[in-house]
Amino acid sequence: MAAAPDPPAPPDGRFTVRLANFEGPFDLLLQLISQHQLDVTEVALHRVTDDFIVHIRAMGSEWSLDETTEFLVIAATLLDLKAARLLPAGDVEDEDDLALLEAKDLLFARLLQYRAYKQVAALFSELEAGALRRYPRSVALEDRFQELLPEVMLGVDPTRFADIAAVVFRPKPPPTVSIDHLHMGKVSVRETAALLRVRLAELGTATFAELTSDCEHTMEVVARFLALLELYREATVLFEQADPLGELRVEWTGGTVDDVRAASAASAPDEEEEYG
User: Fold this and answer.
1) What is the CATH number of the domain that holds 209?
2) Is 37 inside a domain boundary?
3) In which domain of life is the source organism classified (predicted)?
4) What pTM value is reported for the model?
């Protein structure tokens, strides 16, 4: 009786594995083994290798280097994995055998790594194919679209623009490390509030910039701001700010200068609250 002919080759010419317990693409065999759905010890690797050699010879001059490299990587990994699985599971005295047993999980990891690289390569190929279908615009913008562009409004006059340019191009001073904060004294919010009472009573109204014009450190500016909040809580000042983030104007409503000085002299000194 004549032997049955081999099944026809796949349309794409790829190598197909034909075993007693599996038949399909080589990639599918790899997936089944990596997912523990097929035992690698049941795969006759020598027969798979012989079939692949026959397949390459049949391809002639049209053989694929990528397919051959892929087969060698998978076959070598499966061979190492099968050797590790065939070792006895009992006590192992030989260090080489023990190393093979410990490397079993690493061999599975190599299979998964190979699959990941192949999936990424397929994604890159898809992106490259999509990029080849895109062409850059090589013509100028049409007149009907140029008219839609808004006019550039800098918002500054030439003098202000020159000042900005001068600041940008002016050489920067060498960087220094300030140590002023190490020796900065504490600022009393209560004393600052007493100072502002007298000053506002004399002026009647003033801006926050005027009230802090004599400050030398940021700590003093913060203390005066906190002192103004204390005066507002005492209902002795009113705040007025026409625009958001605009100039803040403070108006005194707590009496005359003589009343303020008399109240300051009559107040008994107690423990002061300090800032800083």
Assistant:
1) 1.10.10.580
2) yes
3) Bacteria
4) 0.35
Beta bridge partners of 205: 251
| Token pair in block for residue 88 | 């006895």
Backbone angles phi, psi at 251, to 5 degrees: -115, 130
Type of residue at 28 = L
CB under 8 Å to 195, separation ≥6 — which residues?
A: 227
In eight-state DSSP terms, residue 91 is: -
- Express each pLDDT in 136-176 by its tens digit: 777 777 777 777 777 777 777 888 888 888 988 988 888 88
Q: Which domain holds residue 124?
A: 16-88+95-131
Q: Which residues, at least 6 apart from 251, have a Cβ–Cβ distance to it below 8 Å?
A: 204, 205, 237, 238, 239, 240
Q: Is residue 124 part of a domain?
A: yes
How far apart (Å, rounded) are the C-alpha atoms in residues 264 and 261? 5
Does residue 10 lie in a domain region?
no
CA distance 4 to 19: 15
